[in-house]
Write a structure and sequence with these properties.
Helix content: 55-70%
Structural class: mainly alpha
Oligomer: single chain
């Protein structure tokens, strides 16, 4: 699966060619890196995701230990690079190699520490690996004290939703009903919206009605985003 001539250092050098000081400054604000904010201390070079994907394709044969070196970086885009490489590898790997990537991903969860890093990778690695397997690991992550592990749990279920299976999503949504983080309300609402899209508006409507008084308004707004203006107003007013 791997080209032994490739290294994390070479991948970082390739990514540095797309650095932009202006974007880096903007990203520091956008990703809430100030003291006490969810991205506190994160560093940026200003590479875009499309450019990061270009580099990932060039280094798609990077070994798991070398990808782990990318994830150990303090630079956000370098960690993103590692995660995109793993998603590309996972998609074309056999079951044995998929298991290795899955295990390495979970072992590196502390480095998958911003919403975009989670969202680009969790459905395509964790979710895809668990579609036909026991999903207890997602329930465990959903109960974590770590925000990003909870987000991994919820967003990973997108892989199941796309196959018409909302069961785990709704289980996790229940576990997260009283979550204090706005990023989790948004993630929950996003996945519920996808439930409506792929599993049926009836399934979504039934869940929303039964949890209406407990569901955050942020999650509700995200969940009903594809409803008509009239329907959205009814839901927000509680006339359902």
């Amino acid at each position: 699966m791997n080209d032994q001539t490739l290294s994390a250092a070479l991948a970082i050098d390739a990514l540095q060619k797309y650095a932009s000081k202006e974007r880096a400054i903007s990203n520091v604000r956008f990703f809430k890196t100030g003291k006490g904010e969810y991205g506190e201390g994160d560093e940026f070079i200003g590479a875009t995701v499309p450019d990061t994907r270009k580099v990932a394709k060039a280094f798609v044969e990077l070994s798991i230990p070398e990808v782990k070196k990318l994830l150990a970086s303090s630079i956000h885009e370098v960690r993103m690079l590692g995660l995109i490489i793993w998603t590309l590898q996972f998609a074309k790997s056999n079951e044995q190699d998929r298991c290795k990537i899955f295990d390495a991903y979970l072992a590196s969860a502390s480095r998958i520490n911003n919403w975009d890093l989670v969202d680009v990778s969790a459905p395509n690695i964790i979710g895809e690996h668990l579609v036909d397997s026991d999903r207890d690991v997602l329930l465990r992550l959903a109960k974590s004290k770590i925000l990003w592990e909870r987000r991994i749990a919820m967003v990973a279920t997108l892989a199941c939703i796309r196959r018409g299976d909302a069961s785990t999503t709704l289980q996790i949504a229940d576990l997260l009903l009283h979550d204090r983080e706005d990023l989790m309300h948004k993630a929950t609402g996003w996945m519920l919206r996808e439930v409506g899209k792929h599993c049926g508006v009836e399934v979504l409507g039934e869940y929303l009605r039964s949890r209406y008084s407990k569901l955050s308004r942020t999650a509700l707004r995200y969940a009903i985003e594809h409803f008509s203006a009239v329907e959205r107003r009814r839901w927000l007013l509680g006339k359902v």
